[in-house]
Amino acid sequence: MTHAIRVHATGGPDVLSWEDVAVGDPGPGQVRVRHAAVGLNYIDVYHRTGLYPQPLPFTPGVEGAGTVETVGEGVSGLKAGDRVAYAGPVGSYAEARLIDADKLVALPDSIGFEDAAAMMLQGMTAHMLLRRVYAVQPGDTILVHAAAGGVGLIMCQWAAAIGATVIGTVSTEEKAELARAHGCHHPILYTKQDFAEEVAAITGGAKLPVVYDSVGKSTFLKSLECLRRRGMMVSYGNASGPADPFPPTLLAQKGSLFLTRPTLFDYIATREELEQASAELFEVVGSGTVRIEIKQRFKLAEAAEAHRALEARQTTGSTVLTV
Fold first, then answer.
1. Domains contained in the chain, CATH given
2. pTM of the full structure
3. Where is the Enoyl reductase (ER) domain (predicted)?
């Protein structure tokens, strides 16, 4: 029997239940994938708590890597034994699952299953943020919140390779060193320093063209203070809770600012977009430009412990659930 994590009611980590499930055979256009590793992401917390509602009951998780077991009618380009990875849809916290074939990408031999599971969502999110939402250019100075997290470490490395100066917020000296070792030129200890004041000092008062904020409530308004005229606020997470409502006129008062709330799945909505994003990610990882730092590993059955560590900000880099 196959096992999976199931959620029957939203709430804390204790609602994550390890259960027997029936996977079945793939239907037309589907593939059955046997997971080797599954990625842990903050969106999994939002699904578990109901902030981003899912039909109950459900299996959480939005990224994984493994091997094709069998393919359904009409599937071409994939066969049993192929190594694959994906980001989305929900349902990866399982030993095996059914998934539409067009959501999968072939995994290069140079990239292992754990790295793939740790990088698909986070790495393509970094690609979306740095290359499409706001195309970072050489000479730009940018702010990345949670710079020592999974997405943050990838963004710091990638942006530095582009030629940007990277400012990042972190909570501890240890996280500051980790971020610095991965391309963050100016780590700011937000627990001891006012990050808006530090940004102003670092830029000589010029401020920034873009801020990437995955923290939400506790950083949102102060992040606006870091932007220059017509700068872009990119809000892509709520680690501290959703940002409070505010009048749109505030954006005008602070310099005709732009605000966007992107989600990766709108940027990989077509097969062409998915293939482009994953190919560029595989290229920067395969070349060594970006290193995927897996700092924590938990058994899939221990997903509740992984969620507790993530929410307590006890994790750095990426976390994988091994199957």
1. 2-120+278-322 (3.90.180.10), 138-261 (3.40.50.720)
2. 0.91
3. 11-321
